[in-house]
Design a protein that fits this description.
With 160 residues, the chain is of the alpha+beta class. It has one domain. The chain is 59% helix and 16% strand. The chain has a two-stranded antiparallel sheet with strand order 1-2. The protein has a two-stranded antiparallel sheet with strand order 3-4. α1 crosses α2 and α2 crosses α4. It is elongated and about 50 Å long. It starts with a strand and ends with a strand.
Length: 160
């Protein structure tokens, strides 16, 4: 249910068609686009983390791959995920996967999300993902196709 609205951006008034705040524009299709963009993002984060681990092995040599190593690699993976998410969502309101699928993150009022919302969204996304995807599957049953991390951070994803 799209409506015509005027959005004021840094002194200029810009008219655009957009969905009612939080309303999914394409219903289930936006969930598919979000899933594909999320897979691209996970692949990028995994490749970046793997390159750090390979570089550490080349320069210092990893002798033992034990439980402590796995914990350190897990912490590295979390750090890369947060830096990747916060950098791209803070700078462009899009991650690389969202850029490929023409998606953008907006706050509930339709404006740019605050840094605190982006950080909270990233933390909630991680928890939703680690809970066997339960918070992500939530979007399949939500009328507006909002996942748990969308609702908790008061943000949503729109199609450009």
């Amino acid at each position: 249910m799209a409506r015509q609205s005027a959005v004021k951006v840094e002194g200029m008034t810009q008219t655009s068609n957009r969905a009612v705040a939080g309303e999914a524009q394409d219903g289930g299709l936006i969930l598919l686009s979000r899933t594909l963009s999320g897979l691209v993002d996970i692949l990028i984060v995994g490749l970046i983390t793997a390159s750090f681990i390979i570089a550490a092995d080349v320069f210092s040599g990893i002798d033992v791959f034990d439980a402590w190593s796995r914990i350190h690699f897990g912490i590295l993976l979390l750090a890369v995920f947060f830096l990747y998410s916060i950098f791209f969502l803070g700078a462009a309101n899009q991650t690389v996967g969202m850029m490929i699928k023409d998606l953008r993150l907006v706050a509930e009022g339709g404006g740019r999300p605050r840094l605190a919302q982006i950080f909270g969204r990233s933390a909630c996304y991680l928890l939703a993902f680690l809970a066997l995807g339960a918070g992500l599957i939530w979007g399949c049953f939500n009328r507006r196709s909002l996942c748990l991390h969308d609702q908790l951070s008061h943000t949503y994803v729109i199609r450009l």
